[in-house]
Each structure stands twice: as C-alpha cells, then as structure tokens.
Amino acid sequence: xxxxxxxxxxxxxxxxxxxxxxxxxxxxxxxxxxxxxxxxxxxxxxxxxxxxxxxxxxxxxxxxxxxxxxxxxxxxxxxxxxxxxxxxxxxxxxxxxxxxxxxxxxxxxxxxxxxxxxxxxxxxxxxxxxxxxxxxxxxxxxxxxxxxxxxxxxxxxxxxxxxxxxxxxxxxxxxxxxxxxxxxxxxxxxxxxxxxxxxxxxxxxxxxxxxxxxxxxxxxxxxxxxxxxx
Length: 230
Description:
The chain is an all-alpha fold. It is built from 9 helices and no strands. 83% of the residues lie in helices and 0% in strands. Helix 2 runs antiparallel to helix 3 (55-73) and helix 2 packs parallel to helix 9.
C-alpha cells in the first residue's frame, strides 16, 4: 500500500460517516466526522507531493482550516468568518489560474457553450444574492464580492474544460461545481426550513470540493515537473 493511501481512505471514511450521521441527524457525530476531513486530505496532499508545498497552496489550506473551524464552532461570528475565509480561498485559486496557466484561446465553436456558461453563472449569482436573508442584507457587499470571485473561478474552470478538455481542466471544473453547490445549499439551509437532503448535499459537496482541489494541486505539480524535465 502506498504511503498516501491510508490518509485517503480515512478521508473517504470520514465522508461516509458524515453522510450517515447527517442522514440520521446525529449532529455531534457528524461534526466529529467533518473535523477529520481536512487533516486527512492535507496529509494525503503532503505525502503525495513528497512534502513539497508552495506558499499559495499552504495559505489556501490555512484558510480552509480556519473556515472549517468557524463552520464547526457554529457561533455568532461563524457565518461571516467562514465567508471571509473561503473568499480568500477562492481569490487565491483564481490567482493561481491567472499566474500559472496559459491564456485561454477561444475559437468560434467555443462561443455558444461559453455564452451558456456565462449566462448560467450570472443567473445563479443574481438568484442567490436576491434571497432575503438577514445576514446577507447586513453584509451584502461582502456576499456580492464573494459571489463575483466564485463566479470568476467557475468561469476559468468551465472555459478551460470547454477549450482544452484536459484532465486538469476536468478536475478544475469538478472543484468549481462542488464549491458552487456547497455554497448554494449552505444558503438554502439558512433560507428554507431544515431538510436532511439539503444538509447532505451541502456537506457532501463541500468535502468533495477539498478532494478535487487537492487532486488539482497534485496534477498541476506533475505537469509543471514534467515540463521542467523536458
């Protein structure tokens, strides 16, 4: 068994436990399960990358940890603290896209699917921001910036997959989809009455977003290493 396999198995075991405890409404045990997720996937990343971690990736993990702690604490400042942490995460990932990836070159056949993607992202952004939540009205500018940054991140991911169709572009798109669904269903949980299904979708997509993010980091490092050796 490879050295990174036990931590990956622990990660998916924590995901399975989270799903089970969410379904049975065992909130305390679900919290314990979610607390295992990030340490497990971080250890998997460290071992897989041979303990080579860049500053930007390190800061992204730090903000993920802090944001997760805010979420698990569930205190008065948790919602705003989590929003600010993941706003930083999305902003740093967008910085990685701009700094380390080739410019996207569009062709005529890409115009229609990209237009559909842009319309869909803008529609989601406007629809979510229009929800009448007390916390969103109070900090509307923060949520607006948060939505715009997530939309930019999603645009880069989806357009990269449409134009290139590479494995790394697929990982980027899956990461973006997971983050989008996680955030949308987090807001739905605040807006609508309690629903086990909404909680399950929120927690599952949030955990999967970490997995796809790490796989994206590892694939990016492999490509860069291969390019350097050539």
